[in-house]
Amino acid sequence: MSSPPPRTTPRPASRTRHGSVSLVVLCGALLVATALQGPLVRLLDVGVVRTAATVFVAVCVQALPFLVLGTVLSGAIAAWVSPAVLRRVLPARPALAVPVAGAAGMVLPGCECASVPVARRLTAQGVPEAAALAFLLAAPAINPVVLVATAVAFPDHPEMVGARFLGSAATALGVGWLWVRYGRAEWIAARVRRPPPDDGTPRWAVFAETARHDVVEAGGFLVLGALAASVVTVVVPSAWLDGLAGRVVLACAVMAVLAVVLALCSEADAFVAASLSALPLLPRLVFLVVGPAVDVKLVALQAGAFGRAFAVRFAPLTFVVAVTCAVAAGLLVFGGPR
Amino acid sequence: MSRDTQHVLLVLVGGVLVKIVVDGSYLRYVKPWSATPVLLAGVVLVTVAVVGMVRDLRGRAPAGAGHDHLDHGAGPSAWMLVLPVLALLLVVPPALGSAAVDGVGARAAPVSAVADDPLPAGDAPALGLLDVVSRTAADPSGPLTTRDVTVTGFLVPARGAPTGAGAVDLARLVITCCAADASTVRVHLADPRGALGEAATGGSGDDRWVAVRGRVVAGTGTPDDGHVPTLSVTSWSPVATPDPVYEY
User: Fold this and answer.
1) pLDDT classification of A5: cutoffs 50, 70, 90
2) Transmembrane stretches, by residue range (chain B) (predicted)?
3) How far apart are CA A172 and CA A298, in angstroms?
4) Which residues of B touch A46 (CB under 8 A)?
């Protein structure tokens, strides 16, 4: 950005040629797929593959509206919320900005797909990374919709709501503060921190451009995550969960891993946890705290938004912190594994 | 991926979202209340793409540093968006059915045990399978054991059926958010009068949707049998796949 290339032509030739190439590839792919529709349908109509295809499409259709909501918010932030405004709202010290951003996450009633583009945009607008990450973790886990869903799913165990809130809030703050202390700026892709250019483009155009860019970028990763989740859903034998009833530690570990690979929407995971009634409450709480913080779909989205170097560090960190916070919150609220 | 391609792709993605809501096939994947968000998302995607195209045609696309920033983000991963478009345009995967009962949806649906509304009036009123199981859980010797009801579901091989129950269960899938969180609600079928006939033998293949009339055997559907009541069958008839196909 510091030394723009000389602009002799309004559009670089390479871009025009590149553009036509990818458009031709897209049209070609659509034509080939249409021509092969019959074999394609038959290929996808075999037992397990058919189930996986349905689950894949279901996750995409369920998540895309939330992703679009997130990218629209992201576009609005880019267009109308200047870095100066955000600096005024948030405390200057990152350690103090973390809880404020985490609390802000409570009012975004979406699931995890909506919070990733917003957190990315907040970073671009100069919000401290640790604060944006606290928001990223808090928004899908402790918003009112998710807490009400949890209360509805566990009518006999209202304490589950408090335990989930406690565990998820502690995860968001814990990861935020750890990032303040140990996080390095270079782990996040440099492009993230570049705000949209202030070159006289009308605000609504900045909004549309940012939303389009975010949805194309994040959408691809969302589809990748949905693909992984659908494969895992049909491959993991449900019999795994039988025989875990008496072993709390093993059950916690298995439920934590399941939360990552199943990639359920945070508004639905409480009902899945409630249906696993053979397990004690603690492993089910671990499932509820880990799921919205780290799962395959989220890791894919985060890799797209913040870069791979970020994702390979952030995902394990979040996983460990979330499991720890969930177990601590569970022991505190339930008074034991139960 | 160039801007033009992104615009075309967004129109396609938004278009299929609108399409599945309009033709109703979205109910194979998500709950009915998702119609509005899915439709809105589709409209927003198409709008954003059209705005971008119009600006490009008028030559107002961000130039120089601007397009550097906004164009280079869409890497190869963006191509993945083609997959749901192809799946929904060409294949339209079917709703989960009896094949999912032993796989994805093998978990038992959560039973709420709070249904204390009076039964609908009339002869053998139609009830949801989840409703029957919940009412029975709330009161294992309640009105369902003395009145006939009609329930709709598909036949699956019986699992853990008590003595007196037949070789098939009546099942239905329940979804909370989308088909990925599907779970199964089922009742055992007892057939003291031989009413089930050839339907009683476990077959495989396509889903066999039936409407079964009967009443709950008193004392079943408790935590002891995992909240799977036994329904004593009076009569049954094959039916078309219901719409929506899931219970919620």
Assistant:
1) very low
2) 7-26, 38-57, 78-96
3) 15
4) none
Asked if the Cβ–Cβ distance from A197 to B65 is below 8 Å, we say: yes
User: Is residue B132 located within the same domain as residue B86?
Assistant: no
Per-residue pLDDT of A281-290, as tens digits, reads: 999 999 999 9
Residues of B in contact with A5 (CB under 8 A): 64
Alpha-carbon gap: A99 to the closest alpha carbon of chain B (Å): 30
Q: Which of B67, B93, B119 is the last residue of a domain?
A: B93
Domain assignment present for residue B183? The answer is yes
Beta-strand runs (E) in chain B: 149-157, 165-174, 183-190, 209-216, 230-238
Contact A57 B84 (CB under 8 A): yes
Beta bridge partners of B185: B172
* Tally of structural domains, chain B: 2
Residue for token digits 């609390």? Answer: A103
Instruction: Reply yes or no on whether the pLDDT at A4 is more than 70.
Output: no
Question: How is A12-47 classified by DSSP, letter by letter?
Answer: -HHHHHHHHHHHHHHHHHHHHHHHTHHHHHHHTTSH
- pLDDT value at residue B205: 60
Does B107 share its domain with B202?
Answer: yes
Strands B183-190 and B230-238: parallel
Domain-located, residue B89: yes
- Where is mean pLDDT largest: A313-317, B69-73, B242-246? A313-317
CB pair distance less than 8 Å for A68 and B34: no
Shared domain check, B141 and B57:
no
Contacts of B80 in chain A (CB under 8 A): 219-221, 223-224, 227
Token representation of residue A315 = 């995902």
Domain locations in chain A as residue ranges: 49-334
pTM > 0.90:
no
Is it the case that residue A98 has pLDDT exceeding 80? Answer: yes
Which one of A47, A197, A219 has the shortest CB-CB distance to B62? A197
CB contact under 8 A, A220 and B87: no
In a domain, B191, yes or no: yes
Given a contact cutoff of 8 angstroms between Cβ atoms, the answer to whether A267 and A299 are in contact is: no
Over residues B187-228, the pLDDT tens digits come to 999 888 877 777 766 555 678 899 999 999 988 888 888 889
What is the pLDDT of chain B when averaged over all its residues?
84
List the domain range (segments joined by +) for residue B79: 3-93
- Would you tell me which residues 80-99 of chain B have a C-beta closer than 8 angstroms to some C-beta of chain A? 80-84, 86-88, 90-91, 93-96, 99
Smallest Cβ–Cβ distance between A19 and the set B3, B79, B94 belongs to B3
pLDDT at B202: 54
| Residue that is last in its domain, among B72, B93, B114 | B93
